[in-house]
Amino acid sequence: MNKQIEGFLGIGDDGRKSRIPAKLDLIQSGTGLFLGLFMWLHMCFVATILISKDAFDYIVHLLELRFIADSPMMSYITSFLAACVLIVFFIHAALGMRKMPINFRQWQIYRAHASRMKHEDTTLWWIQACTGFIMFFLGSAHLIIIITNGDKISADLSSQRVFNHFMWLFYLVLLFSVELHGSIGLYRLCVKWGWFEGKDAKASRKKLKTAKWVVSAVFIVLGLASLAAFLKIGYHNYSTGNWEKAQILHINNDGVRV
């Protein structure tokens, strides 16, 4: 009965509101912070392709701890880490869905609020919500690809994956969604929890917003340049028939993978 009363009134029998929403909000902020910082590190790692193929492959082997044991089995480390990120990703997405308009009435309330307020942060939240919806599908697919292909991450193999079957379109949409969602999310975390607020909150928010757009632009440009580098390598290997020399897996007519 107490639970039913709390469900209708939003307070318990002791007159206090439940702390569960606040705890869920804290978890959402924590997982968002982790994923945002991971996004930046991941982009820096991917951007090593702009240096050289050897630099990219070196970082892959470094993250796989190949300096401990130089074995292909170490690629399971990549699969394990990607699986952990996927779990955090699902938790963050599930908690984020709590605040999405789930019916037409809620959508009307949001649109009326946005029209009256004409507040840029409200628009940013809507962009974050839309990109989050896109990421739920594309981001999950990308992580599942990494989990199931942990032994096929190298400059040449990744280039083949990007170049073939127009997968570059998939990664192009994912790039913009991730960078916009992540940078907006980190900005809103700073505003929400008062990070870097300083003495003048209004001036600090303006600086944070400027920093957000600068960071978004930098990482989008870096991502586009990296995607172009993978496409260039993929096209070169394809046009020169250099797949076998590039140590890319293929299947013979008898079904044997070499």
Automatic annotation (TrEMBL):
<keyword id="KW-1003">Cell membrane</keyword>
<feature type="binding site" description="axial binding residue">
    <location>
        <position position="142"/>
    </location>
    <ligand>
        <name>heme b</name>
    </ligand>
</feature>
<keyword id="KW-0560">Oxidoreductase</keyword>
<feature type="transmembrane region" description="Helical">
    <location>
        <begin position="73"/>
        <end position="95"/>
    </location>
</feature>
<keyword id="KW-0479">Metal-binding</keyword>
<keyword id="KW-0812">Transmembrane</keyword>
<feature type="binding site" description="axial binding residue">
    <location>
        <position position="181"/>
    </location>
    <ligand>
        <name>heme b</name>
    </ligand>
</feature>
<dbReference type="InterPro" id="IPR000701">
    <property type="entry name" value="SuccDH_FuR_B_TM-su"/>
</dbReference>
<dbReference type="GO" id="GO:0016491">
    <property type="term" value="F:oxidoreductase activity"/>
</dbReference>
<keyword id="KW-0408">Iron</keyword>
<feature type="transmembrane region" description="Helical">
    <location>
        <begin position="168"/>
        <end position="190"/>
    </location>
</feature>
<keyword id="KW-1133">Transmembrane helix</keyword>
<dbReference type="InterPro" id="IPR034804">
    <property type="entry name" value="SQR/QFR_C/D"/>
</dbReference>
<dbReference type="GO" id="GO:0006099">
    <property type="term" value="P:tricarboxylic acid cycle"/>
</dbReference>
<dbReference type="Pfam" id="PF01127">
    <property type="entry name" value="Sdh_cyt"/>
</dbReference>
<keyword id="KW-0249">Electron transport</keyword>
<feature type="transmembrane region" description="Helical">
    <location>
        <begin position="33"/>
        <end position="53"/>
    </location>
</feature>
<keyword id="KW-0816">Tricarboxylic acid cycle</keyword>
<feature type="transmembrane region" description="Helical">
    <location>
        <begin position="211"/>
        <end position="235"/>
    </location>
</feature>
<feature type="transmembrane region" description="Helical">
    <location>
        <begin position="124"/>
        <end position="148"/>
    </location>
</feature>
<dbReference type="InterPro" id="IPR004224">
    <property type="entry name" value="Fum_red_B_TM"/>
</dbReference>
<feature type="binding site" description="axial binding residue">
    <location>
        <position position="42"/>
    </location>
    <ligand>
        <name>heme b</name>
    </ligand>
</feature>
<dbReference type="GO" id="GO:0005886">
    <property type="term" value="C:plasma membrane"/>
</dbReference>
<keyword id="KW-0472">Membrane</keyword>
<keyword id="KW-0813">Transport</keyword>
<feature type="binding site" description="axial binding residue">
    <location>
        <position position="92"/>
    </location>
    <ligand>
        <name>heme b</name>
    </ligand>
</feature>
<comment type="function">
    <text>The fumarate reductase enzyme complex is required for fumarate respiration. This subunit anchors the complex in the membrane and binds a diheme cytochrome b.</text>
</comment>
<keyword id="KW-0349">Heme</keyword>
<dbReference type="GO" id="GO:0046872">
    <property type="term" value="F:metal ion binding"/>
</dbReference>
<protein>
    <recommendedName>
        <fullName>Fumarate reductase cytochrome b subunit</fullName>
    </recommendedName>
</protein>
